Queue: 2 jobs
Job 1
Amino acid sequence: MKLVELPLLKTKRLTIKLLEPRDAHLMVAFRITNKIHLREWEPERSEEFYTEKFWLIQSKMTTRQFQNGVSVCLVIMDVKASRILGVCNYTNIVRGTFQACQLGYSIDHAHEGQGIMFEALQAANKYIFDNIKLHRIMAHYIPRNKRSGELLRRLGFVIEGRAESFMKINGMWEEHILTSLINRE
Ligand SMILES: CC(C)(COP(=O)(O)OP(=O)(O)OC[C@H]1O[C@@H](n2cnc3c(N)ncnc32)[C@H](O)[C@@H]1OP(=O)(O)O)[C@@H](O)C(=O)NCCC(=O)NCCS
């Protein structure tokens, strides 16, 4: 296994890093608190998803997948890293001629509308381009998810198309708007 330095990003209001085993209980708190808030925008979740056991395993997998260059799944925390405020996951990393990944994200209900996800994604996207050396970050949103569309627009993502029946969200195959941010450097 090739050892790569683990991400640790700092912004004015945030610490952004991989989920560590010692933070598994914070992830459970984030997931339970936001169960209803996130239901409309995420896949259906099993009961296990809300347990510490699940997130302990997940934290180990996240590190392994990072080391293997498969994904960069980040937790967005307050400056002191005492609470999880959200997540941003860069998955399905493809190399070769593509050099691209897919981005998914969500913020705690109580922290929505404060520019926190924008601040986090500005830093994380830069990390993905500068350190992971990808050329394209792809993000998709359901047309009625206006907050998500607006966030991506402000971050510089460009709409590239529309795909019918694209992802199974909350038990339904949903149409999505397809967007990308390209590394121009
Ligand atoms: C999509 C999602 C992450 C967007 O979060 P968000 O908080 O609206 O996004 P931003 O971080 O860009 O914040 C924008 C808001 O913060 C405000 N803001 C910007 N900078 C700010 C600052 N420094 N201080 C305070 N507020 C600020 C903006 O005016 C805007 O407010 P408004 O929504 O009242 O117009 C969030 O709605 C969410 O998690 N939704 C559920 C999951 C989901 O949909 N995921 C994406 C699936 S595609």
Note: The beta strands are 8-10, 14-18, 72-78, 84-94, 100-107, 136-141, 158-169, 172-182.
Job 2
Amino acid sequence: MKCNNIFYTVAATASMLAFTSLNAAPTIFSGTGNAATTEFNNFKAAIKSATNVDGSAINWDAVKLDGTDASPKTRIIQAGKTVEIPVDRFKNRGVIFADPYSVSSDGFATANPATAQQFPAFSVNNTFAMFDSKNKEFKDFKIEQNFVLLNTDTKAGTRGFGAIFLDVEQVGSSTIEYFGRDAADKQISLGKYYVKAGSNSGEAQFLGVLFDSPVVTDVEITPGVRALFSFDGKNIASFGAEDLNKGIDLAVTDDFFFAVPETAKISTVKTSDADCLLNWAERNYSGFFYPAGSSTLTYPPYNYRYYKNTNSYLGVSYSDNHVYYLDGSGKLLDAGDLNTWLNTSKCK
Ligand SMILES: [Ca+2]
Ligand SMILES: [Ca+2]
Ligand SMILES: [Ca+2]
């Protein structure tokens, strides 16, 4: 063990450096029922105070369901009730969807009659959900969207995204996963968050996560565990009722709210660089980081390794590109800029 160990030095100056990373930890806004409204409002206020602008809102309510919608590519699924919107329908708010999704004014009751009354709108009347484009398949139950600069196809990032869910009744059925990009443009998870379960059928939930910079390039929203219906362009098939006893919790979404997309903060970290640095630390500071050679794990926004002999962790953060050390007593220490370490370790 080298006695000039930088991590020892860092520990000695912990009073200055400790917990700085906690400022960068994302803030979670989550609630069900009345608390959904409160948390939704808190999230909007937090975005406004972080960005000085109101944020981008989508409540689906202006989408016309009779074939006269603003986007001519909008397709009628059931006239007056449900339409398919194209991937760029809300490009003016800064999102591009991965697939066409659906907007309904009757809570999808015409598309799936067994779910009537299950999804009362949070903002009247329209709500939003995915559908499966394969006839009689209901497995495609994710909503994916990328952020873009308003009215462009230029990829962008947001500091935070949140959504209202309707009728989430089981923990684990509904989630939002946030993604950023590493220096090699590889998609990296910034965390998967679970929507709280409501205690009454038809209740609204809110889940939003706010980061300290525009690191979120895309999100994957999972409302419930099945698509409500399939539509292959011609045929509509209904999934049927939910069955909580069998873990079949159906849900839809309503209002989306997010910080107006801006130039994304892309990590300067490459996964391969992080691995190189951790190998170097193990070779040079073997008293701290042993046993060496454990696999690199991910706990967004960190890539890290665990050293069981010292019950400590060493990792890099994709959100602020710093190196972090979590010591055996649970103190998280910021060891400084990753690039400096990559130079020191000759990993760059
Ligand atoms: Ca609405
Ligand atoms: Ca229900
Ligand atoms: Ca449900």
Note: Residues 167, 169, 242, 249-251 surround calcium ion (ligand 3) (CB under 6 Å).
